Amino acid sequence: MPTKVLIPTPLRKLTNNEETVEVNAKSIGEAIAELQARFPGIQERLVDEKGEVRRFVNVYVNEEDIRFLKNRETPLKDGDEISIIPAIAGG
C-alpha cells in the first residue's frame, strides 16, 4: 500500500486537480522528489534552494509535524498519510 499525499487546493493546479496522490517513497524527501517527477514545478513550492521545507509550508505525516520528527528524512511506511498545509497569513 503506497503513501497517500493530500494536496491542498492552491497546489492542485500542478497535480491536474487531483486532491490525493499516491507515492512510493521511503522518506518525505523521496516523496517530494517523486511528486516533482510527476508534477513538475511542485517542488519549488514546497522546498527552498537548500532543499528545506519552506517556512510557510507545513508537512505532516499521520498528523505529526515533520519539523518535530526528522524533517525531509522523516521515514514513511505503507499506509502513511502526508498532509501538505500552506500557512495562511492575514491581518
Describe the structure using short key phrases:
single chain; 91 residues; alpha+beta; 5-stranded mixed sheet; 5 strands
Q: What does this protein look like?
A:
18% of the residues are buried. The chain starts with a strand and ends in a 5-residue tail after the last strand. It is an alpha+beta fold. The chain has one domain (3-86): Beta-grasp domain (Ubiquitin-like (UB roll)). It contains two helices and five strands. Strands 2-1-5-3-4 form a five-stranded mixed sheet, with helices on one face. It has helices at 28-38, 42-46; strands at residues 3-6, 20-23, 57-61, 64-65, 81-86.
Outline the secondary-structure elements.
Blueprint: E1 3-6, E2 20-23, H1 28-38, H2 42-46, E3 57-61, E4 64-65, E5 81-86
Parallel strand pairs: 1-5
Antiparallel strand pairs: 1-2, 3-4, 3-5
User: Secondary-structure element order, as H and E?
Assistant: EEHHEEE
How many discrete structural domains? 1
Beta content:
15-25%
Strand order of the largest sheet: 2-1-5-3-4
Span between N and C termini? 42 Å
Overall 3D shape: globular
Q: Quickly give the structural class.
A: alpha+beta
Predict the CATH topology.
Ubiquitin-like (UB roll)
Mean pLDDT: 95
